[in-house]
Design a protein that fits this description.
The two termini are 27 Å apart. The chain has 127 residues and is mainly α. The protein is built from 5 helices and 2 strands, in the order βαααααβ.
């Protein structure tokens, strides 16, 4: 009488999905309503808070008020793209920063929030 005995246990297979695009669109501000409201009612406060969360100086976004092209919004958007490997161009970042400032700050904040807690799928099948 022969009995088969399992000598190895199934191991979890961990898969992480990373994208080379933004996790939300530029006009998806309502995905995070509290952030959207703060950005709408007090953009300087929201921009400074987001800049701090990105690891930059809190007061940097206040320099955007001194030019036609908002340099800090553009540079932080470029920085976030490079940090997370998001495809895009400086030209697009500049256009978004100039035309959709509050939406750009909201998108940056949502991206950092989404990438801070990535979703991991675990499959418990044996190999």
């Amino acid at each position: 009488m022969s009995t088969k005995m399992a000598t190895t246990q199934p191991r979890p297979v961990i898969q992480t999905m990373t994208s080379n695009g933004w996790t939300s669109g530029i006009c998806d501000c309502f995905q995070d309503l509290p952030q959207c409201c703060l950005a709408f009612w007090c953009l300087p406060c929201f921009a400074c808070k987001t800049s701090h969360e990105a690891g930059e100086c809190v007061c940097l976004p206040l320099l955007d008020a001194f030019g036609l092209i908002p340099p800090m919004t553009t540079s932080l958007r470029v920085s976030i793209r490079h940090r997370y490997g998001i495809e895009g161009t400086v030209c697009k970042d500049c256009v978004y920063a100039c035309c959709c400032g509050p939406c750009t700050w909201c998108q940056i904040a949502r991206e950092m929030k989404a990438r801070a807690h990535p979703i991991t799928f675990i499959n418990m099948t044996s190999r």
